[in-house]
């Protein structure tokens, strides 16, 4: 009953949204997606994979081809039909410990966070959880969707998604209501990458009242 | 009166849809009374006593003074399994189990008080409610957790279909809302 009253209160006090109807305006909508995770999780490989799927002529990433990211990579991906005509600005920021305090500067302007986990790296799963916890607890990430990707599922020794979920659920439980999801992917082979992008698209668009896209 | 209105995350609004929560409460309460009535009816037949609506709705039959009272108490405890199953199937979210489980018992308290025209004065009735609430909360929490950690098929499309059981996803993804 507590949640019933909370829901009623929310409905009574939430501003009615005015959806932009004009397709010309919508066509230019840009949503920023932040790729986070420990170093070596596969963020750069994932960005390269997304580029190779959605951009013509972009080469597919190869095993071991990505040097550790220094600074940031950013790609603007126009979505092809039948996906909505929007742009995803995907930010890949270095995951080394020294770079992690840079992340916070990106939170306010991002519309979703993708947290990439190396499922084969059992030794660092605790560190991974601690870092995710910091991201989730940050004030500026409140109310934006978080997608957790259990990457490198093509490798034999990868953790089961359940094991990753077990780690993640402990954090998710503390959140009130939040878009979050765990998906198994392989950034190298591309399995699950399209599903991940589609999930993000649905979620950022649904949340556009709360965090409106950049229009240009 | 102008009330201050706020913009809230879509996820917060969707997961707190009052209509959905209300219909879940109604469904849970219906299941609670329906199965209890069947169980009590069966008990009445076995005991060879006449069944009346007092059995499910009044607190008076649940008294610690005679064997029939204890039997009814045990039936009510067994009926907590109804709530366990119903919450797991209809709600499925670990975080909401406590709220829904307590709501069932609270509504039962209201109904039985109205029906009997007095607050339950039998200690056994209160003990049964406590026991039933503890069973419901603990078992349903455990089951929902298991369900939330269910394995996912790798790479398949199946997991994009809303299941309500995927605990990590606070709001089921509805594909039909994509343009
Ligand atoms: N087998 C496998 N290797 C991967 C996958 N994704 C990334 N890698 C490898 O993991 C290493 C680190 O990837 P990188 O994208 O640089 O990680 P980043 O530090 O998060 O940007 C590279 O050698 C990648 O080839 C994957 O899905 N499967
Ligand atoms: Mg990198």
Characterization of the model:
The complex is a heterodimer of chains A (216) and B (179). Helix content of chain A is 33%, strand content 19%. Chain A is an alpha/beta fold and 216 residues long. Chain A has a single domain (27-215), classed as Rossmann fold, CATH 3.40.50.300. In chain A, strands 1, 2, 3, 4, 5, 6 and 7 form a 7-stranded mixed beta sheet that branches. The relative contact order of chain A is 0.18. With 179 residues, chain B is mainly α. Helices cover 63% and strands 0% of the residues of chain B. The longest helix of chain B is centred in the first third of the chain and has 30 residues, at 18-47. Chain B is elongated and about 60 Å long. The two termini of chain B are 37 Å apart. Residues 152-179 of chain B have low confidence and may be disordered. The chains are: A alpha/beta (216), B mainly alpha (179). Guanosine-5'-diphosphate binds at residues 37, 39-45, 63-64, 66, 68-69, 95, 151-152, 154-155, 186-188 of chain A.
- Along the chain, the helix and strand elements of chain A come as HHEHEEHEHEHEHE
Percentage of residues assigned to helices of chain B: 55-70%
Percent of sequence in beta strands of chain B: under 5%
Mind describing the biggest β-sheet of chain A?
7 strands, mixed
Low-confidence stretches of chain A: none
Helix run count of chain A: 7
Helix content of chain A: 25-40%
Largest sheet of chain B: none
User: What sequence of helices (H) and strands (E) makes up the elements of chain B?
Assistant: HHHHHH
Distance between the termini of chain B: 37 Å
In quaternary terms, these chains amount to heterodimer
């Amino acid at each position: 009953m507590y949640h019933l009253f909370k829901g009623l209160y929310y409905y009574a006090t939430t501003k009615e949204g005015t959806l932009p109807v004009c397709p010309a305006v919508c066509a230019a909508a840009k949503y920023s997606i932040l790729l986070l995770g420990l170093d070596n999780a596969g963020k750069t490989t994932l960005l390269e994979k997304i580029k190779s799927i959605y951009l013509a002529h972009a080469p597919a990433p190869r095993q071991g081809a990505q040097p550790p990211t220094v600074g940031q990579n950013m790609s603007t991906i126009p979505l092809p039909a039948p996906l909505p005509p929007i742009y995803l600005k995907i930010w890949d920021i270095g995951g080394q410990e020294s770079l992690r305090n840079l992340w916070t500067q990106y939170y306010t302007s991002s519309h979703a966070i993708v947290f990439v986990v190396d499922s084969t790296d059992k030794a660092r799963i605790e560190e991974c959880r601690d870092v995710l916890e910091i991201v989730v607890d940050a004030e500026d990430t409140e109310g934006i969707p978080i997608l957790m990707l259990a990457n490198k599922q093509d490798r034999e020794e990868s953790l089961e998604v359940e094991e990753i979920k077990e780690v993640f659920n402990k954090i998710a439980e503390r959140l009130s209501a939040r878009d979050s999801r765990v998906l198994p992917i392989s950034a190298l082979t591309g399995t699950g990458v399209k599903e991940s992008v589609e999930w993000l698209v649905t979620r950022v668009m649904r949340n556009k009242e709360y965090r409106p896209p950049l229009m240009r | 009166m102008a009330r201050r209105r706020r913009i809230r995350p879509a996820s917060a609004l969707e997961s707190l849809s009052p209509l959905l929560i209300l219909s879940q409460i109604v469904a849970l309460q219906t299941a609670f009374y329906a199965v209890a009535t069947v169980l009590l009816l069966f008990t009445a037949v076995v005991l060879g006593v006449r069944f009346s609506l007092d059995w499910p709705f009044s607190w008076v039959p649940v008294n610690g003074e005679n064997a029939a009272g204890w039997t009814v108490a045990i039936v009510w405890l067994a009926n907590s399994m109804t709530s366990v199953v119903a919450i797991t199937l209809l709600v499925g979210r670990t975080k909401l189990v406590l709220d829904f489980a307590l709501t069932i018992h609270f509504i039962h308290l209201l109904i039985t008080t109205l029906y009997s025209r007095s607050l339950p004065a039998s200690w056994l009735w209160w003990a049964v409610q406590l026991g039933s609430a503890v069973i419901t909360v603990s078992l349903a929490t455990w089951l929902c957790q298991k369900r939330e950690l269910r394995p996912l098929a790798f790479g398949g499309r199946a997991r994009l279909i809303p299941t309500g059981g995927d605990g990590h996803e606070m709001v089921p993804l509805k594909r039909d809302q994509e343009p």
